[in-house]
């Protein structure tokens, strides 16, 4: 008898309930994946690798008992609708979805197929769940935003660039969670002696114009809020911040890896691993309606020292000591 079969037999005899000891169903399960970055984006690959590795640890591997169907939308809502319809027609057992921009079109298309989402900023405001504790429908998952985090962006930006007296907040006006993030930043701004303004952008051209106009006055800095738009156009934003010498704080690590100054962000790769655990639980009979939506509990401060030097900034020793990672190059 093989060791795995022996463990399953023993676990059944003693009433064990761990995933490793459960006999897997014979049929192949289908996971439909809807993401907002390109297939060849390094961040996409890292996220999927984290998700698939955790699934494998739980007993689900491609080519054995699970298969994946992928679609990419790059922030285009019409494309997301098309992708959702195509994947629903394939009758998946569960969806893995990144972000509010995709969740809206998908949940309007199906209220029956289970959905596990990652990095949805405000699932209640978006109408995706009834509450965090009891989602109540066909969707559950992991939020990317604790609004207290948004206020922290302003504090950290002021610490690394004390000369700043003006902050422009780059946001997608169509982002459901934007109001909550904006409110938290606005509440902190006067306490730090900073004038606050909103830069609402929907495409690359508006990003170019908004940042250029904001940079026309001195002592400015930028906060980039969470959105698919910002991630898709991250290289443009990073380059414009460097061009106009605007200290900028970002919502995710990938911006800093690509040359941005700093981020204070939840650990998105960890959320993808957790999403795999939720998919496993759904495969084993639990319902999304009963799986609580989880808020981020771990945040990381990452600083790009080379970018700070290029901007003429001296990172305070206390901030360096506090940082989870300091990138010396990009």
Q: How would the blueprint of this fold be written?
A:
Layout: H1 3-14, E1 29-35, H2 42-57, E2 66-72, H3 77-89, E3 94-98, H4 100-109, E4 115-120, E5 139-143, H5 147-160, E6 166-171, H6 178-188, E7 195-200, H7 204-214, E8 220-224, H8 228-232, H9 234-243, E9 248-250, H10 253-257, E10 262-266, H11 268-283, E11 299-304, H12 305-310, H13 317-322, E12 325-327
Parallel strand pairs: 1-2, 1-3, 3-4, 4-5, 6-7, 6-8, 8-9, 9-10, 11-12
Antiparallel strand pairs: 10-11
Outline the structure in words:
With 330 residues, the chain is α/β, with parallel strands linked by helices. It folds into 2 domains: 3-145 and 267-290, Rossmann fold (3-Layer(aba) Sandwich), CATH 3.40.50; 147-266 and 299-327, Rossmann fold (3-Layer(aba) Sandwich). Helices cover 41% and strands 19% of the residues. The longest helix is centred in the first third of the chain and has 16 residues, at 42-57. The protein is elongated. The termini are far apart. Mean pLDDT is 89; it is low at 1-25.
Descriptive tags:
330 residues, Rossmann fold, 2 domains, 12 strands, alpha/beta, elongated, disordered N terminus, 41% helix, seven-stranded mixed beta sheet
Under CATH, the topology of the largest domain is which?
Rossmann fold
Could you list the spans in which at least 5 consecutive residues all have pLDDT below 50? 1-25
Structural class: alpha/beta
**Fourth-tier CATH superfamily name of the largest domain:** Response regulator
Average pLDDT works out at 89
Q: Could you give the order of the helices and strands?
A: HEHEHEHEEHEHEHEHHEHEHEHHE
Quickly name the level 1 CATH class of the largest domain. Alpha Beta
């Amino acid at each position: 008898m093989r060791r795995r079969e022996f463990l399953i037999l023993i676990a059944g005899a003693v009433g064990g309930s761990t995933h490793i000891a459960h006999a897997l169903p014979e049929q192949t399960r289908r996971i439909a994946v809807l993401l907002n970055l390109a297939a060849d984006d390094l961040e996409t690959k890292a996220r999927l690798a984290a998700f698939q590795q955790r699934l494998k640890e739980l007993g689900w591997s491609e080519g054995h008992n699970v298969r994946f169907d992928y679609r990419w939308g790059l922030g285009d809502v019409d494309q997301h609708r098309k992708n959702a319809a195509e994947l629903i027609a394939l009758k998946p057992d569960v969806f893995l979805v990144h972000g509010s921009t995709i969740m809206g079109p998908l949940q309007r298309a199906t209220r029956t197929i289970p959905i596990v989402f990652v990095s949805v900023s405000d699932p209640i405001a978006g109408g995706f769940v009834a509450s965090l504790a009891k989602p109540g429908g066909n969707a559950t998952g992991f939020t990317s935003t604790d609004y207290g985090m948004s206020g922290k962006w302003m504090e950290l930006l002021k610490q690394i660039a004390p000369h700043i007296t003006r902050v422009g907040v780059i946001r997608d006006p169509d982002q459901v969670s934007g109001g909550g993030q904006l409110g938290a930043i606005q509440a902190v701004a006067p306490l730090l002696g900073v004038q606050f303004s909103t830069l609402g952008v929907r495409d690359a051209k508006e990003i170019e114009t908004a940042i250029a106009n904001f940079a026309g006055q001195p002592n400015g800095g930028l906060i980039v809020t969470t959105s698919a738009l910002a991630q898709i156009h991250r290289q443009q934003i990073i380059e414009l911040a460097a061009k106009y010498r605007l200290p900028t704080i970002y919502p995710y690590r990938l911006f800093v890896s690509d040359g941005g100054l700093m981020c204070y962000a939840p650990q998105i790769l960890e959320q993808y691993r957790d999403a795999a655990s939720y998919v496993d639980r759904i495969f084993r009979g639990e319902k999304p309606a009963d799986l609580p939506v989880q808020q981020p509990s771990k945040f990381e401060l990452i600083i790009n020292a080379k970018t700070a030097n290029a901007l003429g900034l001296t990172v305070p020793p206390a901030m360096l000591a506090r940082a989870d990672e300091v990138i010396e190059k990009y």
